[in-house]
Specification:
Blueprint (H helix, E strand, L loop, with lengths): L2 H13 L5 H12 L10 H23 L17
Helix pairs in contact: 1-3
Length: about 80
């Protein structure tokens, strides 16, 4: 499994609302996304590799995926839908 595939799985994990990475990886990636990730690793090996790509993922998110601050930033924890 390539570094980019591991980074993609980590981004997908945060985009979906799973409670923990293990159930997401074993229940969703390994069962429903077999065609997208044909060379899946065992969960233990995936966690080991996750630490190796953390810096690459951080750099990618800082350069490509973050918006620019326009001045005032407000954080509100109120859910939009209940």
């Amino acid at each position: 499994m390539s570094d980019s595939e591991i980074m993609t799985i980590l981004v997908l994990f945060h985009a979906h609302r799973f409670r923990d990475l293990k159930s997401f990886y074993l229940g969703y990636i390994c069962q429903h996304m077999r065609g997208d990730f044909p060379h899946r690793l065992s969960y233990n090996r995936f966690v080991e590799r996750q630490a190796q790509v953390a810096l690459h993922l951080l750099l990618f998110l800082q350069t490509c995926a973050l918006g620019k601050c326009s001045g005032i930033s407000i954080i509100d924890s109120t859910p939009l839908a209940s």
